[in-house]
Design brief:
The complex is a heterodimer of chains A (about 350) and B (about 300). With about 350 residues, chain A is mainly alpha-helical. Chain A has helices at about 5-30, 50-60, 65-80, 95-130, 135-145, 150-165, 195-200, 205-240, 245-250, 255-285, 290-295, 300-310, 310-340. Classes of the chains: A mainly alpha (about 350), B mainly alpha (about 300).
C-alpha cells in the first residue's frame, strides 16, 4: 500500500470513529431523560408547563432519537452547537467551550513540559544504572506517582504550599484559578492563554501571577503522569543498549557518554516522544480531577459541571472535540513514524 | 522400549517446569521492592479478610455528633458546624466528620475497595479474553468491527465517559462498578487480541492443526493459556489503577450514600475541612496510595520476571 492510500484509509476510519463517538454520546446524553434532561438548557423556572411543552416540541425533543440527531446536526452547522444551560448563563455551547479551552492548553503545556523534564532524565539514568540504587529509587518514585490519587496529591500540595506556607509567613502559592481576581482582564487577550498574554502584553506582573497559579496544578498533573513515561524510557533505553551496534560502539573505545547520548538515546527517544505527544493530546481534553481540585476554569472542570447539570449539548461538543484531538494525534504519530523511520512500510 | 522412555522424559519435563516456577519465584523475592509490594498487598488483603472481626460493621452507622463537636481540635474554627477530633488517646488517628473513629472506618473501607477493584478487573479480563480471543483468532470482518468499537472507546475522554455512565446509571456501588467496567474492557480486548494474533502464527499451532485438533480446542486450551501472562501483569497493575479511578468517581460526588465507608468517600468528606482537619483527607488518601502502590510494585516485578528478554 502506498503512503497516501494508507493516510486516506486512516482518515476515513477516523471519521467513522468520530461518528461512532457522536452517536454513542448522543444516545447516552439524550436517551436517558431521567438522568440527563436534554431540554433543561432551554427552559427556566418562570415558564409554564405549556411553554415548556412548546420548547420541547420546537427543539424536537419529542421526536425519536434518530430524528433528534438531525436537529442536533442543524445546531452544529449553525456553529453554536446548541445552547448551554443556566449554569453557563445559557450561552452557545461553542462559546462556553472556547472561553475555557486556552486555560486547559496552558495547563497541558506546562504539565507536559514538566513531565518530560523530569521523566526523561529519570528514565535514562535508571536504564544506564540498571538495578543500581538510582534505578530502584526511580522505580519507587515513578510507581508512587502512578499510584497516587490525583485529588489527594493536589489537596496535599494546597495544604502545604498554600495554607502552611501562609501560616509560616513564607511566600505561598495560590490554590485556585488561573490568575488572581484583581488581575482578571488586566491584559488584552491575544491568545487567551494567560501566561502567553502576559508576555505578549509585556505585563510582567500578570505573567508572574499566571506562572505562580499554574505551578501547583502542573506539578500535580506531571507527578501522577510521569511514571508511565519514565518506565517507558527506561524500557526502550534498555532495549537499545542491548543491541549489537551499541556493543560495537563500545568496542571502538568510544566514551560511555558518547555511546549513551549519541548512539543509544536517539533511538530510544522515539517511543518517549510518542508517549509525550499522546499525553499532551489527552491532556487537551482537560484533566478533570486536577482542574476540579484547583478550581482551574478549563474544559475538564466545565465538563464535570455539564455532567452534573445534565447538559447534553455541552457533552456532545466536548466529547467530539476531545475525541477528534486524540484520533488525529494518533494518526499524526503513525504518519510521522513512517516518515522518520524508513523501515516502517504500510 | 517406548514405555521405558516415556517416564523419565515426563519427569524431567515436570521438574523443568518446577525449576522454572522456582526460578521465577526466586527472581520475584530477590527483588526487595517486589517483596515489599507482596508483603504490603498481603497485609491489605489480610486486613480486608479480618475487618469484620476487628471492627463491627455497625460502627459505620453509629454517628456521634457530640464527639464530632470536638473542642480540643487545635484548628478549631468558630462557626464551623462540627469539628472532628484530632488524633488522641480514644481515637488513634482522630474521628471523621460524623464522629466515627477514622481508623475503624478505614478498616471497614479496605475490603469494600479491594472487592470493587477485583470485581471490575476480573470482569474486564473475562470480557477481554472472550471478545479479544475471538477477534484475534477468527479475524476478518468480526475482528474489524471489534477493533473499530474499541477505537471509539479509546477516543473518548475516558474519565468523562465513566462520569456520564455513572450519571445515567444512578448512584449505587454496582452501577459505579459497571461505569468503570464499561470504559475498562476495551483495553483487555486489545491486549488479548494482540497476544492471540502473535501466538496464532507460531509453529505449535500449525502442528496442532495438522494433528486435527479442533479450532475451539486450539483457541481455549492452547492460545489463551499461552497469552495469559501479559494479562496477569496487566490485571495486577490495574487493581491499583481501578481503585484510583473508582475512588475518584466517588470523590467527585458519585457517592451512593454520604456516610459510606469507602476510601474515596472518606477523603471527599475532608475537602471542606482540608485546612481545619487535614487528616480527614490526608489519611484515607494515603491508604489508597499504599494499596495501589503495593499492587503496582507486584505487577511491575511480575512484568520483569515474565519478560524473557530480561532473564538470566
Amino acid at each position: 500500500m502506498r503512503m497516501y492510500e494508507y493516510v486516506i484509509r486512516r482518515l476515513i476510519l477516523s471519521i467513522l470513529v468520530l461518528f461512532g463517538v457522536s452517536v454513542i454520546t448522543f444516545y447516552l446524553a439524550r436517551g436517558f431523560p431521567g438522568a440527563i434532561s436534554p431540554w433543561s438548557s432551554y427552559i427556566n423556572s418562570r415558564m409554564t408547563a405549556q411553554q415548556i411543552q412548546m420548547v420541547i416540541h420546537e427543539h424536537g425533543f419529542d421526536q425519536p432519537l434518530y430524528i433528534q440527531y438531525f436537529y442536533w446536526l442543524r445546531d452544529v452547522f449553525d456553529g453554536n452547537w446548541g445552547q448551554a444551560g443556566q449554569w453557563a448563563n445559557g450561552l452557545p455551547v461553542y462559546q462556553v467551550f472556547m472561553s475555557r479551552f486556552p486555560n486547559t492548553v496552558e495547563l497541558a503545556l506546562v504539565g507536559v513540559v514538566l513531565t518530560v523534564a523530569v521523566g526523561l532524565p529519570l528514565g535514562i539514568v535508571s536504564a544506564v544504572r540498571n538495578n543500581k540504587p538510582v534505578d530502584h529509587a526511580s522505580r519507587v518514585f515513578s510507581l508512587t506517582g502512578i499510584s497516587t490519587p490525583t485529588y489527594w496529591f493536589g489537596f496535599l500540595l494546597q495544604l502545604v504550599f498554600f495554607y502552611y506556607f501562609f501560616i509560616w509567613r513564607l511566600p505561598y502559592l495560590p490554590n485556585r484559578g488561573v490568575v488572581s481576581d484583581s488581575l482578571q482582564g488586566a491584559v488584552t487577550a491575544f491568545t487567551g492563554i494567560p501566561i502567553l498574554d502576559g508576555l505578549l502584553n509585556g505585563n510582567l506582573n500578570y505573567f508572574f501571577d499566571a506562572v505562580s497559579h499554574v505551578i501547583l496544578p502542573a506539578i500535580t498533573l506531571s507527578f501522577t503522569s510521569l511514571g508511565a513515561l519514565t518506565r517507558l524510557v527506561r524500557a526502550s533505553m534498555l532495549e537499545v543498549l542491548r543491541q549489537d551496534y551499541i556493543t560495537l560502539a563500545r568496542s571502538k573505545g568510544l566514551l560511555e557518554r558518547v555511546v549513551i547520548f549519541r548512539h543509544a538515546l536517539r533511538n530510544a527517544l522515539i517511543p518517549a516522544l510518542t508517549v509525550s505527544g499522546l499525553l499532551f493530546a489527552g491532556l487537551l481534553g482537560g484533566a478533570v480531577v486536577v482542574e476540579y481540585v484547583f478550581s482551574w476554569p478549563g474544559v475538564g472542570w466545565v465538563s464535570l459541571q455539564a455532567v452534573f447539570q445534565g447538559d447534553s449539548n455541552f457533552l456532545m461538543l466536548y466529547s467530539l472535540v476531545t475525541a477528534a484531538i486524540i484520533v488525529f494525534a494518533n494518526l499524526l504519530v503513525d504518519i510521522l513514524y513512517a516518515a522518520v523511520d524508513p523501515r516502517i512500510k504500510y | 522400549m517406548t514405555e521405558l522412555q516415556k517416564e523419565p522424559i515426563r519427569k524431567s519435563e515436570r521438574s523443568a517446569y518446577a525449576e522454572e516456577v522456582r526460578y521465577a519465584l526466586s527472581l520475584l523475592t530477590k527483588n526487595k521492592l517486589v517483596l515489599t509490594g507482596l508483603l504490603m498487598s498481603a497485609f491489605f488483603v489480610a486486613v480486608a479478610l479480618l475487618s469484620s472481626l476487628i471492627v463491627p460493621s455497625s460502627a459505620a452507622n453509629t454517628f456521634n455528633f457530640s464527639i464530632a463537636y470536638c473542642w480540643s481540635n487545635p484548628y478549631f474554627n468558630w462557626g464551623v458546624q462540627s469539628n472532628p477530633c484530632p488524633a488522641g488517646t480514644n481515637f488513634p488517628i482522630g474521628t471523621d466528620g460524623y464522629g466515627r473513629d477514622l481508623l475503624s472506618m478505614i478498616i471497614l473501607a479496605i475490603p469494600l475497595d479491594l472487592q470493587i477493584a477485583l470485581t471490575i478487573v476480573l470482569s474486564a479480563a473475562a470480557i477481554g479474553i472472550v471478545v479479544g480471543a475471538v477477534a484475534g483468532y477468527v479475524g476478518g470482518w468480526i475482528d474489524e468491527i471489534i477493533l473499530r468499537v474499541t477505537d471509539i472507546f479509546f477516543a473518548f475522554p475516558f474519565f468523562i465517559l465513566a462520569l456520564v455512565f455513572a450519571a445515567i446509571l444512578g448512584r449505587t456501588i454496582q452501577n459505579l462498578e459497571l461505569a468503570v467496567l464499561l470504559v475498562w474492557w476495551p483495553l483487555y480486548v486489545r491486549l488479548i487480541r494482540g497476544q492471540v494474533l502473535s501466538e496464532k502464527g507460531k509453529a505449535y499451532v500449525e502442528a496442532l492443526r495438522a494433528l486435527g485438533v479442533g479450532k475451539f480446542r486450539i483457541l481455549f486450551f492452547h492460545l489463551i493459556p499461552n497469552s495469559i501472562y501479559p494479562l496477569l501483569v496487566q490485571a495486577t497493575l490495574d487493581i491499583g489503577g481501578v481503585i484510583l479511578v473508582f475512588s475518584s468517581l466517588v470523590f467527585l460526588g458519585f457517592s451512593p450514600t454520604p456516610a459510606l465507608p469507602e476510601l474515596g468517600n472518606l477523603a471527599a468528606d475532608g475537602i471542606e475541612k482540608i485546612f481545619t482537619a487535614p487528616w480527614l483527607l490526608v489519611i484515607p488518601g494515603l491508604v489508597i496510595l499504599l494499596i495501589s502502590l503495593s499492587f503496582n510494585l507486584v505487577g511491575d516485578g511480575l512484568r520483569d520476571v515474565l519478560d524473557p528478554r530480561l532473564r538470566r
